[in-house]
Every structure is written in C-alpha cells, then in structure tokens.
Amino acid sequence: MINKTDNNRAWLLVVPVVVLVAFSAIIPLMTVVNYSVQDIFDPQTRIFVGTEWFREALLDERLHGALGRQVLFSLMVLLIEVPLGIAIALCLPRRGPWVSFCLILLALPMLVPFNVVGTIWQIFARADIGLGGWLMTELGFDYNYTASPLDAWLTVLVMDVWHWTSLIVLLCYAGLLSIPGAYYQAAQIDGASRWAIFRYIQLPKLTNVLVIGVLLRFMDSFMIYAEPFVLTGGGPGNATTFLSQQLTTLAVGQFDLGPAAAFSLIYFLIILLICWLFYTAITHLSTR
Q: Which of 287, 267, 264 is nearest to 275 (CA)?
C-alpha cells in the first residue's frame, strides 16, 4: 500500500490570487466602509458621525424611488429575457452549417460596449432620424422617449432585451446540447409530446444554467448605468433614474462622499440579499 502525503506547497499557488482579491475588492470595500461613518470636509478634516449617513440614506425618498424603479426594471428584464431566451434556444439548430452562423449572430449584441449600445438606441429611437422612431410614428403611435416616461421605460427595456437576451440563449443552448440523446430516445418510445419532453426532460436539465443566467442577468440589470444614462440621461424627470445613476450623482455630482459610501453599502447589501433569495428559491424548486 502506497502512503500519499499532502503537498501543502500547492497552496502557495493561491497566494497571488488572494493578494489580488485583497487589493481589488477587500481594501476598496474597507475604504468605503471607512468613508460611510465620517463627514469629510477635505483630506485633512474628517469627523466621525457613526450611522448618521445610513439613517439619512434609508429615509431618503430619492433612494426609495430609485430602488422601486430598479426592482421593477430587473423583474421585467427577467420575466421577458428568461422565457424568450429558452424559446429561442429551443428553436436553434443542433447540427449543420447554420449552427455557427446563428451562434455568431446571437453573440454580436453582447460584443457592443455599454455606452455604444445607448448611443445606437438613442439614434434608432428618434422619430426624426431613427428607423425605430419613424416606424412607431408611421404606425400611428405618439412615440417620444425624451418626453414620455412610458416611452422612455419601454425603450430602455427593449434595449436591454436586445442587448442581453443572447446570454440566456447561449447558456440554455449549451445546456440543451449537454442532455444525453438516450433521454430523447426513451421519450420517443413512450410517445411523449413536445411539451412533455420540455417539461420533464429539458427544463429540469436546464436548472443549473438557468440559476447562472438569472443571477447574472439580475446583477447586471440591477447595476445598469451606462445604457439608460446615454439614452435618456435618467429622464424624462426621474423616470429612468436607477440606483447606480442616483449613486453616481450623489458621489460625483454633489461630491458627498460620506452619504454616497453609505448608499453604496446599502446598494451592495440589497444585491447580495436578492441574489441569495433567487438562488435559494431556484435551488429549492430544482430539488423538489
């Protein structure tokens, strides 16, 4: 019998990663925590205020409004993109020359930078020079995303669906390809319908990739900034001012570092809490 000894020197390979994470995440986070309990007048003048900025942020009506808009936007994104992504993935070819073409075509929107996406849709949705705005006008709709809060909301939502549905499609397509053919053969022998195959074979096998897709899309949509900022500037009024833009205005526009730091920590905890709830709910459903 050969006795194997543990080679603890392998842990040394993890040290560079730990150091990198410390500098890129832990140290900046501790800096934000430090700022959140101080009133900063200048680099040399700081006053400890405890939890004052947290109480102020929690009672701020602007935070409440931005949080409500953010939660509503993220839920609408998930309710549209996840079913749509699954449906498109089911329609994609599994073999043949069209597979590569379809996958490349689907991946193109994700390759466009965030600020460029906002610029594209800013031009596309204009009624005077944009094809989308012109089409809406020709169809008889009084469409103006710069003046109507509803039009602005719909434009931002459609823009996000165009930009990120491909991510759900590609994840689901990879999950579908990983299902062994024996499952489909057994279903064919039993005379299962197309819906029964999806309900009892494909959907359960997609649970893991859907967990990843939902968490990624939620976190990304909950932190959206560049696209709506370029497209609408947060307007009209505050109709499309989400949490990230509210935080940027507080930190950069007004230079209130203490309240902005407290705001950002609350923002961070909200994302962690909702991601944990999503993960717990989806994994619980998958084990039933």
A: 267
What distance lies between CA 210 and its chain's CA centroid? Answer: 14
Query: Over the chain (288 residues), what is each successive 10-residue block's mean pLDDT?
Result: 60 81 79 83 76 85 86 93 93 86 89 90 87 88 88 92 93 90 88 88 87 88 89 86 85 80 87 83 68
Neighbours of 197 (CB within 10 A): 17
Hey, what amino acid is at 228? P
Q: Dihedrals φ, ψ of 42, to 5°?
A: -160, 175
pTM of the model: 0.82
CB-based burial label for 223 (10 Å; 0-12, 13-18, 19+): middle
The token duo for 270 is 């909200």
Task: State how far Cα 17 lies from the chain centre.
Answer: 25
What b/e sequence results for 83-113 when a residue is b if at least 16 CB atoms lie within 10 Å of its CB, and e otherwise? eebbebbeebeeeeeeeeebeeebeebeeee
| Cβ within 8 Å of residue 213, ≥6 positions away | 82, 85, 167, 168, 171, 172
Fold of the 60-255 domain: MetI-like fold (1.10.3720)
